[in-house]
């Protein structure tokens, strides 16, 4: 779904039948911008041009543009360890809640689904950053935080690259040095 930014707060969905027209207008405006470059003014670098194209062409079909969707984390995701998470509805601020089903644990008690709470950016380019916290209170004293970014892979599928910190509870301050682990997980959408 395409969105028009009406003001700083409001996103208005663009009906499907207006989308093609909008994309055409964007292509025309892009050409005008390029033609309007002033002599002596520095030409945009190749990287800048690419970024511009990907911004303009987000969700526009054809002309080599990929069909990029704005990223919304709502749904089921699975990572490289086999852990799954369900992100419930993402609100208009980007705030969300969910449930994390880890496949691995260093706790003694049996693993249980664990509540997560997070926040994502709502960029139109399908490449938003996000973060969430998982509280393992049902079976562990630890807390994990994840930060990441959504990408559209070459196959057009969404992929989340994340880094995490897992804080274990230790019984004394002298053990603080060994209480935090870090790692990375990659998630793909499974629902
Ligand atoms: C614990 O072991 O105390 C609680 C479970 C921690 C699971 C970790 S969080 C980072 C990594 N990614 C996963 O999907 N699971 C592990």
Automatic annotation (TrEMBL):
One GO CC term on file: extracellular region
Subcellular location: Secreted
Primary location recorded for the protein, binned into one broad class: secreted
SUPFAM superfamilies linked: Avidin/streptavidin (SSF50876)
Keywords, alphabetical: Biotin, Disulfide bond, Glycoprotein, Secreted, Signal
Disulfides per UniProt: 71-150
GO molecular function, one term: biotin binding
Record flagged with keyword Glycosyltransferase: no
Gene3D superfamilies: Avidin-like
Subunit details: Homotetramer.
Family: Belongs to the avidin/streptavidin family.
The protein's role, per its UniProt record: Forms a strong non-covalent specific complex with biotin.
Protein name: Avidin
The species this protein was found in: Cyanistes caeruleus
Lineage, uppermost ranks: Eukaryota, Metazoa, Chordata, Craniata, Vertebrata
């Amino acid at each position: 779904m395409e969105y028009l930014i009406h003001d700083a707060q409001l996103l208005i969905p663009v009906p499907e039948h207006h989308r093609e027209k909008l994309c055409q207008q964007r292509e025309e405006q892009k050409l005008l911008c390029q033609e309007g470059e002033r002599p002596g003014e520095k030409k945009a670098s190749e990287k800048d041009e690419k970024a511009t194209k990907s911004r303009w062409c987000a969700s526009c079909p054809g002309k080599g543009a990929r069909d990029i969707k704005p990223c919304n984390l709502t749904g089921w995701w699975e990572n490289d360890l086999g852990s799954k998470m369900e992100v419930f509805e993402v609100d208009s601020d980007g705030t969300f809640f969910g449930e994390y089903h880890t496949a691995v644990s260093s706790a003694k008690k049996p693993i249980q689904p664990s509540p997560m709470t997070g926040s994502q950016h709502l960029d139109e380019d399908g490449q938003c950053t996000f973060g969430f916290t998982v509280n393992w209170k049902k079976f562990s004293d630890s807390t994990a935080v994840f930060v990441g970014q959504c990408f559209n892979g070459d196959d057009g599928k969404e992929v989340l690259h994340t880094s995490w910190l897992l804080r274990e509870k230790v019984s004394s301050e002298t053990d603080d040095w060994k209480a935090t682990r870090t790692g990375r997980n990659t998630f793909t959408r499974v629902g």
